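WP5 quarterly update. Target: Anti-sigma factor antagonist. Source organism: Halolactibacillus alkaliphilus. Length: 111 aa.
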Amino acid sequence: MNINLSIDVIEKDNQTELIVTGEIDAFTAPLLKEKLLPATAKESEKIIVNLQDVAYMDSTGLGVFISALKSTKEHGSTLTLVNLQERVHRLFKITSLDSIIAIDTTVRGGE
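Structure tokens (predicted):
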């Protein structure tokens, strides 16, 4: 099985940035969850997920972000998604998750 996902985690002060590259699907979502959820459990942590190099995400990926959002509510941390490509951003819009998950409005990748 070829897992087409890499995640760099940069921790500084009360901020954790995840730079995600590849595709988020049923095979790779567990890796994203494993890297993302511990950061959301830190009180007052600001989590930024950079999705600039994610061209594809399915509903499994959405599930990871919903879990992360619930965890931030429980622990008083915040979650922001940044640099979404249009295709990925559309998934959040179609499901109305863009109304509950903070998404930087800078959308990359054209129309």
